[in-house]
Amino acid sequence: MFKRILGIDTMLFSFSTSDEDFHGPNEFFRVQSLRDGLAAWTRYWEILGTQETGLYAPFRGGGE
Fold this sequence. Notes:
By secondary structure, this protein is mostly helical. The protein has helices at 2-6, 31-49, 57-60.
């Protein structure tokens, strides 16, 4: 969706820590990491929602 509509690449946030053995047989995920991730994504969308659409024109290869 980002690439198609905004012309920008997708980004990934990771909130797991190295000791959580991501995709290992003893994998786990701390509830606090989930809370931190949800808070970060919420803040990300709040900030992104305040940006002027012209800000993304350089990524689209043209003007708005």
